[in-house]
Amino acid sequence: MKLDRRIPRSLDEMADLSSLAAPPAVVTRSLTIGGRRASLRLEATIWDGLKDIAKSQGKSLEALCADIHDGRTEGIPFATSVRVYVLNHFRRTAAGSTTLVA
User: What is the model's pTM?
Assistant: First the structure.
């Protein structure tokens, strides 16, 4: 991967570069999974990915999260399982069936 190492020539370019260093927006949502309330704290882009996946599968966001929760490996945090699920989904759609386990 080639990095662009040039010096910014204007304040606009500096603003664009500084936005790359900003931490991702994290959003907390409450869901009902198996009749119990759960709080899930994920990056906004992961929530967007979940919404897209749920829509493509004809499921609600809560139903998709319940499926992920029920299928996760014991001992792996729920939020981690969701992140890996989203990553795997988009990897499969982009380039075959590369799979991580969580």
Answer: 0.70
